[in-house]
Q: What sequence folds into this?
């Protein structure tokens, strides 16, 4: 094969890469891991790809809660970065990154989330505890339009253990994210009575309103979560 043909093939492969990445994302979203496995086998370089939204394909798989895809991609991916180690719950790897570069604890991922926020959102209690002990800011909002705090992330996924940890370490239970949503709004929306009670016991404002004027009780009523409705009405 001459040089011209080689360069042409490389150009065509590079041009086709975005389409392959999009295809991989589609398979991940649809939980079609068998077809994804075939795609990765034929195109292992996709494992190191960055999506159009700036996050790695591994991180995208985590957002889609596709554990099978995570395992497939991780087995072929050349390196796991700091934020990926947090998302995956790889405590040892995350600690190695921080030992080498302590300032990582104050940085944000490509999509604007801090390590503690990611640990909370992906149910990684041990990582969250390690990061807090290492100096991560409890009330550090995300560096994007969502303005999500770690306690919002914990409540969004209904993780009582992490929510309790954050509160014990001094988290403000009344912080507001985008649209004025508080942690109690999230608990009410998700129907999590246990977390709702925890927040209220620690000073959550039951009358807090979103930018559209909705209270936690309003959100509970929308889904007819009667136990939470009773709890909020009596608080």
A:
């Amino acid at each position: 094969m001459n040089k011209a043909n080689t360069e042409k093939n490389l150009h065509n492969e590079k041009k086709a890469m975005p389409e392959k990445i999009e295809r991989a994302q589609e398979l991940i979203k649809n939980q079609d891991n068998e077809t994804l496995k075939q795609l990765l086998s034929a195109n292992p370089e996709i494992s190191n790809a960055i999506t159009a939204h700036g996050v790695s394909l591994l991180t995208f798989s985590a957002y889609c809660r596709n554990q099978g895809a995570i395992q497939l991609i991780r087995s072929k991916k050349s390196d796991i970065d700091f934020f990926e180690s947090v998302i995956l719950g790889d405590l040892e790897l995350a600690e190695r990154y921080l030992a080498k570069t302590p300032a990582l604890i104050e940085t944000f991922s490509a999509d604007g989330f801090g390590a503690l926020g990611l640990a909370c959102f992906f149910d990684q209690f041990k990582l969250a505890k390690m990061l807090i002990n290492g100096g991560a800011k409890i009330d550090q909002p995300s560096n994007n339009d969502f303005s999500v705090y770690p306690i919002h992330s914990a409540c969004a996924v209904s993780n009582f253990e992490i929510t309790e940890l954050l509160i014990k370490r001094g988290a403000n239970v009344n912080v507001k994210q985008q649209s004025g949503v508080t942690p109690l709004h999230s608990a009410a929306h998700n129907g999590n009575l246990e977390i709702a009670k925890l927040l209220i016991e620690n000073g959550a404002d039951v009358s807090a309103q979103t930018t559209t004027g909705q209270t936690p009780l309003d959100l509970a009523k929308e889904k007819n979560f009667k136990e939470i409705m009773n709890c909020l009405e009596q608080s």
